[in-house]
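$ ./design --mode recover --in tokens.txt
reading tokens...
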């Protein structure tokens, strides 16, 4: 831990120096390729959710407070200033629980990194304060961001922050957005450190937002906006906290680790561990379902039982009880007791609810969370028969055991070690399939094809304004007609 008499640079400065020096040539080809597919998934998520009711509500309120600016609001024919643009575009990416997450240190990286980077690029283009952002510079800055958030999270024991009630990604994500934007703007090490210091002092995020609040959709947007703000202030010469991660009094790690129950309370070395050799981008996972990641084990367990015992599960009224055993993080995040009335936000965060949806509909996608589907009696009968239990047996966040008991006393059970998309992760081809499936009918086929082409060929893109123009303009809602 930091010592007042240390003369060697601490982990904060070490990390900032690495960010400054990082080049595309330093990054393995498979990591660069994977990052492009992750970016495709991120922009696809934004297009899907930009006109969902809660995203439209947020957009209407924010546009009512903000004047015009240089930064597009994705899915709309509107432009505003950089900070609210980052906030709203992040809210869209996080708007339907289908976006990426990091399997070791839960954070939704695309919702933090991409909106901040595009807003920074549009602002620089408008003000003439920076070079035109190419596809290559976007790719490099995105990877710098992908590497930052999870490292900060691992220093705080990753998913343990969720167990303690923090919205982990929002805590880890402020530094993530700041580092990514600082890289895009070619800031030197001193100013990158200032950017992180300004960003980290704004970090927060309460996981109680998951219980049906609209704010759950926006909280990663706070990190995108605030990290961008930190980087723009630093670029203008505004100083931030030095040694922000390891500072003993009021430092980021020391403060957020208070009461953690861990020994040591935090592991600052995780921030710089294996830089340039260990790539946290490899641990970013893409969701196949429209639900919180901790519920995916419940979905897969029900799907496995449906495949193995189709006759027994043909009549769901015969079910007496459904029990899930799960890890501490999954239990605290998704094992809570769901009660009516429940909004789509709460429904997507509940293991019992999404398991019932899988049993009834055989899928957990956009259709399942229309208002007209949230209050089905047969669904709530299943939710009422479901119990979730925390077990010390499962250290893996995603491991779950499901047992279904029938009225005649029969039991069927299955164990899920890692949910679909976790181990193994979705392939690049499957990510493309997801992008096409979820955006089909929401944008034209030509717009869909062009976005895919530009993202997967980022190194050839001279100005990312061409890509952002395709993200702008009205999109349809997957709930249209509901």
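writing sequence...
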């Amino acid at each position: 831990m930091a010592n007042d008499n240390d003369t060697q640079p601490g982990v904060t400065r070490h990390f900032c120096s690495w960010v400054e020096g990082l080049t595309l040539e330093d990054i393995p080809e498979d990591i660069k390729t994977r990052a492009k597919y992750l970016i495709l998934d991120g922009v696809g998520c934004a297009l899907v959710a930009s006109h969902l009711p809660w995203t439209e509500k947020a957009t209407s309120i924010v546009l009512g407070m903000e004047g015009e600016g240089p930064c597009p609001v994705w899915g709309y024919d509107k432009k505003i200033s950089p900070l609210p643009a980052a906030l709203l575009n992040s809210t869209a990416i996080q708007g339907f629980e289908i976006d990426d997450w990091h399997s070791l240190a839960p954070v939704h990286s695309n919702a933090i990194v991409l909106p901040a980077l595009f807003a920074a690029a549009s602002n620089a283009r408008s003000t003439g304060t920076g070079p035109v952002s190419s596809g290559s510079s976007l790719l490099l800055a995105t990877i710098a961001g992908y590497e930052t958030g999870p490292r900060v999270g691992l220093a705080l024991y990753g998913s343990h922050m969720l167990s303690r009630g923090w919205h982990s990604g929002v805590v880890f994500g402020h530094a993530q957005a700041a580092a990514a934007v600082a890289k895009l703007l070619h800031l030197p090490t001193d100013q990158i450190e200032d950017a992180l210091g300004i960003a980290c002092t704004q970090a927060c995020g309460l996981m109680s937002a998951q219980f049906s609040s609209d704010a759950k959709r926006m909280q990663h947007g706070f990190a995108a906006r605030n990290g961008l703000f930190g980087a723009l202030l630093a670029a203008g010469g505004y100083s931030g906290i030095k040694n922000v991660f390891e500072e003993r009094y009021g430092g980021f790690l020391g403060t957020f680790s208070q009461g953690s129950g861990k020994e040591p309370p935090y592991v600052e070395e995780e921030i710089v561990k294996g830089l340039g050799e260990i790539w946290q981008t490899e641990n970013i996972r893409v969701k196949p379902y429209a639900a919180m990641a901790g519920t995916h084990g419940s979905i897969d367990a029900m799907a496995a039982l449906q495949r193995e015992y189709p006759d027994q599960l043909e009549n769901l009224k015969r079910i007496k009880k459904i029990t899930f055993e799960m890890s501490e993080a999954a239990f605290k995040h998704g094992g809570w007791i769901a009660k009516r009335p429940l909004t789509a936000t709460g429904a997507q965060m509940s293991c019992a609810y999404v398991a019932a949806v899988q049993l009834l509909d055989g899928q957990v996608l956009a259709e399942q969370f229309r208002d007209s589907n949230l209050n089905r009696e047969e669904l709530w009968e299943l939710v009422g028969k479901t119990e979730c239990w925390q077990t010390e047996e499962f250290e893996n966040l995603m491991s779950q055991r499901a047992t279904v008991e029938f009225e005649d006393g029969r039991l069927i059970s299955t164990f899920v070690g890692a949910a679909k998309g976790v181990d193994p992760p979705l392939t690049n081809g499957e990510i493309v399939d997801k992008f096409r499936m979820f955006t089909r009918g929401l944008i034209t086929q030509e717009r869909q094809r062009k976005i895919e082409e530009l993202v997967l060929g980022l190194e050839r893109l001279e100005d990312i304004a061409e890509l952002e123009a395709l993200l702008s303009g009205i999109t349809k809602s997957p709930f249209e007609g509901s």
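exit 0
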